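Researcher: Next sequence.
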Amino acid sequence: MPCAGLPLLGLLLFQAVPLAAQESGHNEREASPCAALRGLDAALERSSLLIFGEIHGTAQSPAMIEDVVCNLVADGRTVTVGLELPRDQQPLLDAVLASDTSESTAASRQALLASPFWSHQQPDGRSSQAMWKLLDHLRQLRLQDHRVEVVAFDIPLDAPRQRREEEMASFLAAAIAAAPDDLHVVLTGNLHSRILRGTYLPLAGHLKKQFPTLLSFDVAHDGGTAWVCLRGPQGCQTQKVGARQPRQERGIYLLDEADRFGHLGVYQVGPLTASEPAAGR
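Model: Next structure:
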């Protein structure tokens, strides 16, 4: 999607302004150019609800969401971003998004990373440096007077799988119904983003019953590494990942019907690189 009114640097990935480079107490309102994405316009012609499945613990999927949202708000749209984070994180996320100085951003970041989810002894990829970077980019978009909201929709991992899928879907459905004119972009694990039933019906499958035009995408990549949590003594660490459905150009590819993995398309991100915990190991 073209980013109207943005400079030619819009062909580059926008970058967060490092905290160290910000003047103390300075209101951050510098414009962020958007990276062009193939296939985004075609997806939006079919749905206002886009679900992106990821391998937790890489830099590339959160970066894709950054670029998707940047393009959407640059077009004047209001966007709600659903993240697979515990619901009790919502006040901390709201504080991050509301911060508008280097001091308030640093304080809200410190509070977020000190919370049990982000400081867990075995932090999974949802509490990665890339996820913090995504939140910070959404914060900066809001500072530029773009309309962006974030919804945390997960429940505790020890819940039965089917119940977890149902409750995540119910919570997201309520958030979507409460903002029917928004574009809704969801980032979740690529098992939850499937629309087809396996041993249980995933999150996206439940949502598709209520929102038939929903589009769900699996991550396509050239292989690389991811921060992965395994059962047993290995715990959480960087692991190699083999290539999956790679395409030549970064962007979104639609399918006419669900593939065998239960997705209606893929989004190509290139090589994967592991993103370690934002709070440190």
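Model: Residues 161-178 form the longest helix (18 residues). Residues 32 and 85 are 25 Å apart (CA to CA).
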